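Methods: example folding runs. The two proteins below were folded one after another, and each record is reproduced exactly as written to the output file, sequence line first and structure-token line second.
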Amino acid sequence: MSKDKIPKTGIDEKDLFEYMENSMHSDIDWRSGKTFGAVYYPGEEYSKVISKAYVRFMHENAFDPQLFSSILSMENEVVEQTASLFSHEKDSLFGNVTSGGTESIFLSILSARNWAKNNKGIDKPEVILSSSAHPAFLKAMHFLNVKPVVIPTKKDFSFDLESFEKAINANTILLIGSAPNYPTGMMDPIESLSKLAVDNELLLHVDACIGGFLLAYLKKIGKDIPLFDFKLSGVTSLSVDLHKYAYAPKGSSVLLYRKEELRKEQFSVYPNWEGGIYGSTTFLGTKPGGIVASTWMALNHIGEDGFVKLTHKTMDATKVISDYIQKSKDLNLIGNPIMSLLAFNSEKHDIYHIADLLSEKGWYIGRLQNPPGIHLVVSQIHADGAAENFIADLQSVLKSLSSSEIKNKIFKTTDALAVNALKKAGYNSIKKTILGKTKSNKKSKKRLIYDLKSDLNLEESDDLFRSILSNLY
């Protein structure tokens, strides 16, 4: 089968599905719970029903509400049902379904920028955020010509509120808080940020994309969760992904606003276009009807009781892993995570080497930098034995390292020599090694990147990672 041209004659579906199945052999085995992040799966029963809703509306376009009022109705219900989790019942919030957290974040920056210009006359807008905030904010500000003011976290990785407050000036338009942040799973002090926003007449966006839905249900089952939503008067917008812990298909997030006048600032309207009057409420034009329908189905088919059960399963699995890490003499939990995102490192062993060995055993895990660490996003799929399997493999890896400390030191020394040689050779050699097709220095390419990146200047780092993306796609 030709891979670079559309076939002249259509290929039989059996052959195509066989080809697809074969191409998946190198994919991660997420159904066995070996993926921490990237995939959020509610289970086979729920998934079948949700996918039916997607297929039923896969050809409908949610862009024009006059054509498909059913999709408009479902989107409005998704927004209202989501809003009910983050506000008092009497509150009326405004929002839209977006394609994901990045679009929600982009629109939150766009609306803040436009509102500040139209209402305060600010032409050189600045947004204050913590270094632990998601890079989607930096991406949005780059496109929108908004200056990011990044406040480093403290030595214990907690939020630096004092420095945050000192950074406020006449050009500040928006404060950003994470609930929780992605790297360590720690909550930003949203209540304090709310007071800052009110006292300084600023907007405050809460990024609850990854954890907001789960936090809402943790609160419902009696967990002590600090306020982070519209129950705080200073919160003016909030984003929450439904394709994470609401288990909707990929491409589903909700952006909520306290006031309609702020939401209107994200709209695009071109009444004089030759093709007719054009307007869109979000960044996208065409919006897949299947996403809206399947998101609506996820919320209404799983229901309150279902989400409570999934929340318990998620936190049970998280406890298994967290308890082991905290009892281990080899590992240290990073920060003070509030839910199912956690990170750990090791003072005794090379944490990236541990990550490499776990990857060899088939686990997909995140790697942190500043500090180096392993990052896990736990969900309900890890509750049926996967958490215990992970601990068993982690124990095996640690045992293999601890039983041969001398060998481990030799490994580190050899690697250090190889890495230092590359550093001395210069950026072009580093780039050639990382982008090359052959393995080098008995280390994974990912490991090499982490070892060498700190020695590159900003221009070199930018070029290297653009080249990596170009090679991948």
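Second run, written to the same file directly after the first:
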Amino acid sequence: MPDQPRVLCEVREHIAYVTMNRPEKHNGLDMAMFRDMIATARKVRKDRSIRCVILSGNGPSFCAGLDFQAVNKDPSIVAKVFLKLPWTKQNIAQEIAHCWRDLPVPVISVVHGNCFGGGMQIILATDFRIAHPDANLAIMEMKWGLIPDMSGMATLSRLTRIDIAQELTMTGRKFNAQEGHEYGLISRLAEDPMAEAEKLARSICQQSPDAVAAAKYLFKKTWKADTWKALRWERWVQARLLGRKNQRIAMKNGLSKEGEPLPFIDRRSF
């Protein structure tokens, strides 16, 4: 039988359900998974009808990290994944995580089972991380004599304190989702994280898709920036929204006291 696709993607009601599909390996990252995840993110980027992404994993775990057995069988994977081409800003290992942060729409990760190493760095690059309380987490690269290099340094600093980031990195220890929530690495805990993610996604999809994309863009540009830079970006982003079709629809819906709200058109900005 031919191999199943490593990543599934289905769009329903403006929500892209992206699912890692290697359950027998706890969605371990092999070369095919790297390629399919990045290709799926690029596909989502091109579809302006999509307003939110829910990222999850089939089977018992979200993602157990890099598949070292696959690397041992084909050592060339290391060069393919970790060497950056001169005309790119990131290597494939970094892109598999950072591509979700770089999408113009919000990405919600649904975490269950094990979320180790590369899987952990993937969720850190998403906008919201909703986890089952029993989920197991780890920045596990230290176990293999490595450091987190799948965009972890770009994402950890915006979510938690440096001492926490260093301790979890330098020990590589496992911790549960409750502890991750206390550290700021998990957004919410839920017995049914997919249902909670869908609830959040539907709420986001009720807003102007241009304004939501603008908000994500603005936060990415200004979070921890100096005050004057943040104010400049506010003005520039707002100027791209004022008077546009979706902004006019939002105004009408906000002022209307009767009837169904007018539907928004597909995203045009950002």
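Comment on the second run: The chain has a mean pLDDT of 95.
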